[in-house]
Amino acid sequence: MVAFAGALLGAAGCDDDSPTAPTVDEVVGRYRATTLKVTILPVTQDVLAAGGSLTFDLAANGALTGHVKIPGEGVDQDFAGTWKLEGDEVDIEDIPEVDTFVEDLEFDVRGNTLRADRLIDGVRVQVVMTKQ
């Protein structure tokens, strides 16, 4: 897990014309991670099972606020920034005050979930955020 924090905390879709692309009003809301896994080959760790968490609120004006906790890494912090919807993808654009992996993720909108699966500095991060 130490390599996870070091790699991620320091690291910095579909066509927009799709008729089924979600609207901002459909996407805004409070989300909680129901899956948060990190893989540094050959080991995959379930951050939620270890007591971690990730939550955020997406506001209609593009504001983002949230909290991330990664046990064993000393990470337990609030964050704020901006987001935008591009087609069926939520892009976390900027989290200026806190260096976190969240802004490195792009989430696919699938119903009431946001899903990300990304390789960041050699670390695979899999996240499913479920709307509350």
Helices, strands, pairings?
Blueprint: H1 2-9, H2 24-27, E1 29-40, E2 43-46, E3 53-58, E4 63-70, E5 75-86, E6 89-94, E7 106-110, E8 113-120, E9 123-131
Antiparallel strand pairs: 1-2, 1-3, 1-9, 3-4, 4-5, 5-6, 6-7, 7-8, 8-9
- Kindly state the mean pLDDT as a whole number? 88
Q: What fold name goes in the CATH topology slot?
A: Lipocalin
CATH architecture descriptor: Beta Barrel
Number of domains: 1
**SSE string, helices as H and strands as E:** HHEEEEEEEEE
CATH C-level name: Mainly Beta
Question: What Rg is obtained from the alpha carbons, in whole angstroms?
Answer: 14 Å
Main structural class: mainly beta
Shape: globular
Tell me the β content.
over 45%
Distance between the termini: 28 Å
Number of helices: 2
Poorly predicted regions: 9-17
